[in-house]
Amino acid sequence: MNHLLLELANTRQTYRKMLNLYWITIVLTAILEYVIFLMEADTSPFAFFQALLFQTICLTAVTGAVEILYRYRKLQSDWLLILTGIFYATSIILMNPSIGIVPAIYIFPILTSVLSFNKNRIVAAFALVLLSFAALYLISPELRLTMQPVHTIGILFLYTGTTVIALSITSSGIELLNNLKHATEAKQELLVKNIIMDKLSKLDALTSLYNHKTFHEYLEKLIDQHERNELPLQLAIVDIDNFKKINDTFGHWVGDIILMRVASTIKETVSPNDFVARYGGEEFAVIFTDKTPEEAYDLAEQVRHKLSGTLHPELDSQAATISIGLQAYTKGHGKEGLFKGADASLYAAKRTGKNKTVVQSAIADPVVV
Question: How far is CA 100 from the centre of its chain?
């Protein structure tokens, strides 16, 4: 979870902004040091500018190293930011040990650690601040002289209070992200369910082909496109021959197997741009798009030949043949005219012996092929 929060911070370019802040701090520190020098005037100008130059060079070197790692190595480390903040604070305190409030600047690396959204890292930053302050207190007589016991207690209280606030902010951030994560997951789960339900409402449960309702919706859109753009369009109605006899002789469960195999054969044979649906009972419908009537006929015949040559163990090694009525759409005739021609072709196929494709090129007499 903390890793996700860090990624969120990085996405918002927080790391880049912190580096920019460090660069600005170098300039502000130099200005602040100069103002303090003018106010106190108890240090020789040469010694002051020498110390200021040394401090500026050190701060620039440390910040430059972090900048190089970020820019050229793509390294974004919370520890680098925290340690850099401690280095900044330490250098400012060393330059101004006689100012009692200056150790308060150590809250800066503690606040920087909040960017990690990691409680352990915040506590570690607090510990490093305490160690740094203790080390400065031991090595700097001026700081010891400046820091009265009440000042020291106040500074330690400030560090502790800042750490508690940082931990509270992190806890709130983690809780907020958890709530956001759960809300997002619930929304995604609902979206997936809606997609699945929408898909199921469009498919036939047995054959996984599009159902009757979806077929008509799609056909209406294609006819509309044909009327406007003269999109090539043919309709084939496929009927399994003697299907009632199959159910009566071998049982409905065998009939279901045959339906699934016929559906699979049709879907595997036609092109991905064609639309296959279970029209009802033992009937299937195929909409051929972007094809000439000859190409649509060839595909219909491929389906028929495959099925007439497929022997089913459940039918005592007999084939389940199909009859196909094919109708090319004629502009202005509408969906009713298209179905009328396809139905007439299918009826002709059934009437003239079955297991054949009959082509209807116009709303006239069918042509047996």
Answer: 53
- Distance from C-alpha of 252 to C-alpha of 72, rounded to nearest angstrom: 70
Please name the amino acid found at residue 159: Y
Question: Are 2 and 118 a contacting pair, CB within 8 Å?
Answer: yes
pLDDT tens figures, 255-287: 999 999 999 999 999 998 899 999 988 999 999
Residues contacting 242, CB < 8 A, separation 6+: 354
CA 80 to each of CA 84, 111, 131: distance values in angstroms, whole numbers, following the listed order: 6, 14, 17
Of the candidates 313, 171, 334, 203, the residue with the CA atom closest to the CA atom of residue 267:
203
Q: Where are the alpha helices (DSSP H) in the chain?
A: 2-11, 14-40, 45-73, 78-95, 107-112, 119-139, 141-146, 149-202, 212-229, 243-250, 252-269, 293-308, 334-351
Residue 324 parent element (H or E)? strand 322-328
Contact 333, 367 (CB under 8 A): no
Distance of alpha carbon 221 from alpha carbon 244, whole angstroms: 33
Antiparallel, parallel or unpaired: β 275-280 and 283-289: antiparallel
Express each pLDDT in 1-54 by its tens digit: 445 554 554 444 778 888 888 899 889 888 888 887 887 766 788 888 888 898
Q: What angle do CA 54, 55, 58 make, to 5 degrees?
A: 85
Q: What is the DSSP string of 16-62?
A: HHHHHHHHHHHHHHHHHHHHHHHHH--S-HHHHHHHHHHHHHHHHHH
Positions marked active-site: 282
